């Protein structure tokens, strides 16, 4: 992304698109009973509450009645239908892991199989987006979950800590290409969840080869444990390398969420919040998803940026848009064109 003299002036920035992740599959309801919904009605109402507070993108996971993260796609269909009826303008973004929570003590924390995750392209009603990981990566969420933040929660259990420490994200080349093919065929927009520059470079190669022909909506994830760490230099390096025509959202965890959201909003980008990312505020107190959204709204207004409503967020994300060919995709996303045969000494990339 490029920044010029007036790039930080709010009148030259998009309206703020706030993503909320209020379902938090790594936590159990007893960890924050005031804010973790369990019944289907409660889960739908949580989406309504978040939308009314100012969030226009809902990062969606589902719970069973016993409080555990659901791995049943029929439950996803039910929640998507309920949210769509209650807040039709909200962008529904299904978490591509479905649920990574272990089934019980001593069991592994696992992303589901390749075939099962491909079935997200068959959800009915279909979501607006499905998040997609790029490149198989370690996802040790325990690396930065310090003990003082875990006291009194289910993650204080050593068995759960061991399970989450060993978690990996399976996202090899064949799976990624097939998943993108299925999502595009179904008219579902992928939202790229990127762990660092290496993942961003892979996405660029996929675009230049014509595997993906659509808008680039990206999230940079700074949570450590195999992903970029929550270091501002990591984030700014990523911002510098990101294409001019993409949208970019910052994601981190615990007390890092607010600083990264403020940095993102200050430079014209977008925040993500919710209990999947943090249960606490900067003072260590419990902070609900709605409270976190309201905080983002306050910061946005202090910066002079308006918060996008549902229809505006859909336009910013270009929901439903696909492009006919590689060159159109490159132009729309602000990327240099592919190098033509015989061209030399130009900064464009060659098709692999």
Automatic annotation (TrEMBL):
One Pfam match: BKACE
Gene3D superfamilies: Aldolase class I
Keywords noted in UniProt: Metal-binding, Transferase, Zinc
InterPro entries hit by this protein: Aldolase_TIM (IPR013785), BKACE (IPR008567)
GO molecular function: 3-keto-5-aminohexanoate cleavage activity; metal ion binding
Domain of life according to the entry: Bacteria
Co-factor(s): Zn(2+)
PANTHER family: 3-KETO-5-AMINOHEXANOATE CLEAVAGE ENZYME (PTHR37418:SF2), 3-KETO-5-AMINOHEXANOATE CLEAVAGE ENZYME-RELATED (PTHR37418)
Name listed for the protein in its UniProt record: 3-keto-5-aminohexanoate cleavage enzyme
Species of the source: Leptothrix cholodnii (strain ATCC 51168 / LMG 8142 / SP-6) (Leptothrix discophora (strain SP-6))
Lineage of the species this protein comes from: Bacteria, Pseudomonadati, Pseudomonadota, Betaproteobacteria, Burkholderiales
